[in-house]
């Protein structure tokens, strides 16, 4: 993409306005906290102290709107406390330019490096540095600076207290995350009916996992229906894919395929009903046709082999979903369902429990491993089935989220890990530091009197990637220009008093809280009005604030954009590395799955789960890098777009084959497959070697995997799952090599090596 096209795209993205669900009660709560802090400060102190405390309360409220699963009161307290410390230290050093520049450089560098700990930490740190540049100009003595710092902390305390007193559907984000995961599984089941190889985006599952990480206090107060369903959704996905896939499941056409389509439709209906129940906190409503499909007793006779095992496991998992989504047993029929539907829902629960606890050997297939949770011999008809250990052990009840104190060393390790020359986060920290210092010096030399606007604008718009930095710079200038002129017009027409200015500032803040997620330009419009009214409350004339705000904001935006052009961290040249990282993680996941056939440990093995999560994270990092690189004004020096798409499809097929095999992992104590151990070792070593080849622009080779499969004599292989799954893994790896061969950069590298030889 050329520079002109890239600038046009970022400008359009900066001014884009999105339709988002608004949170008026949360916006009102933040505005009330801000109004309370300003009112107390005006009553007890001066307008200058009120302006300083208002920034603390304002920033604390913004922190609570960040995308974080950590308890919101903690975010408000941390924001208020860090801003208070920054204000006090900044004022102490402000009278000595060299000392203040050293402090500003340190604060700016740490704020840029804090993006390694996550976007929430990065946004809060950048905002604190920017607001500190304003608040240090308000006190006139050390005692006043301490008072202003205390009022910033007071603003954070007020916002935290309001969050505790008025939580406003505190568990709604967690409910939405879990419901989105279940709804995504339902949509996946529907698409599998028509496309057995349909793709699945794991982002809802990853989001639900993040939401499931709770502090001990949150765990004690968590609604019952939020416990366990996320783990069930994780285990249902491979079972759905395995049931639908013709290679390992039912044939592509025929009676078995028709029954599979019916089961997939019923599973989608149950998952959708569970998603609605979790999202709304209402009883589970199941429709009669889906209940009847799951209750049909001849499924085990229609389906055979791996498809039968997958169907039984799916029935057991759906029963667990019903139990989890409706722990009180309040399930009802759909409005148009007959009265017997509720009883049938209870029957589904009982049938699912029996499918998990009662083992039956499928007749006619002596080498077929028993179905999940089945007895080796059926009990006599007049005896109840003997209970055994369930085949699907429940997932851990809670994923613990570390507290703030224990999080400090984790953040420190993340930031220290980015102190390397090729780190994009380190380059961002260096850019932020240089721009903050240069912007402050330029603002100081200009005859405006409020030089902090230039570094403030630069720090607030800068992000580690190109697109967001440029789009935010354009949006900030446009929003600032419109907001400043609108607020100035109001000041000229009304000439408000101190209290009226404070009220107008609170109104602007409330509108900003309400609309901040619709677009950066929209939020900056109201932020500019908030600052104009707040400084007017403190005695600033509009003739002072308007020209300097517009000109210095433009300077800050230009500095931010120029810094990225001069010292970039382009994603395009690193695409090969991202792809190699994904291949390595996918290879570990496949190796863990295959190795479980050699050493059966049950379908709930934590090593497989850990490898799967690492592969998902690597896949997400690849997709994000690909999206960022698509809008960079850089000539491709890594993978061509076609080769990147082909390689992504190949590694996705490789991961999918491993997932299909995961759906049929043998129970603990089952007959092992000795040859799987050699294949697992070959997958692990060759994918690591192949990743190095991709980084060095060489075509990966998979001779060790071919040798492992060629030496496979089939002894101990119970059915087609292991053999066909292994063949699918090798075919996907060969597609990776084909994609690399088609890339021009790999061809150039081969030509250079051939010339050198």
Quaternary organization:
single chain
Please describe the biggest sheet, giving its number of strands, its sense, and whether it closes into a barrel.
2 strands, parallel
Give the structural class: mainly alpha
Percent of residues in β-strands? under 5%
- Spans where pLDDT lies below 50 across 5 or more residues: 333-346, 351-397
Fraction in helix? over 70%
Quantity of strands, as a count: 4
Radius of gyration: 30 Å
**Count of alpha/pi helices:** 30
Report how far apart the termini are: 35 Å
Going across the biggest sheet, name each strand in turn.
Answer: 1-4
Average per-residue pLDDT, rounded, comes to 80
Q: What would the principal axes of the Cα set say about the shape?
A: globular
Pfam family, one: FUSC-like
Membrane topology: Multi-pass membrane protein
Biased composition (Low complexity): 332-345
Region (Disordered): 327-396, 737-757
Question: How are the elements arranged and paired?
Answer:
Blueprint: H1 3-14, H2 24-44, H3 47-64, H4 72-94, H5 97-113, H6 119-135, H7 142-165, H8 172-194, H9 203-212, E1 213-214, H10 216-221, H11 229-244, H12 255-280, E2 285-286, H13 288-295, H14 299-302, H15 305-325, E3 332-333, H16 340-357, E4 399-400, H17 404-417, H18 424-445, H19 453-461, H20 466-494, H21 498-515, H22 520-537, H23 542-566, H24 575-598, H25 606-629, H26 641-662, H27 675-695, H28 703-710, H29 720-741, H30 744-756
Parallel strand pairs: 1-4, 2-3
Helix pairs in contact: 1-20, 2-3, 2-7, 2-21, 3-4, 3-6, 3-7, 4-5, 4-6, 4-7, 5-6, 5-18, 6-19, 8-9, 8-11, 8-12, 9-11, 11-15, 11-26, 12-13, 12-15, 13-16, 15-16, 18-19, 18-23, 19-23, 20-22, 20-23, 21-22, 24-25, 24-26, 24-27, 26-29, 27-28
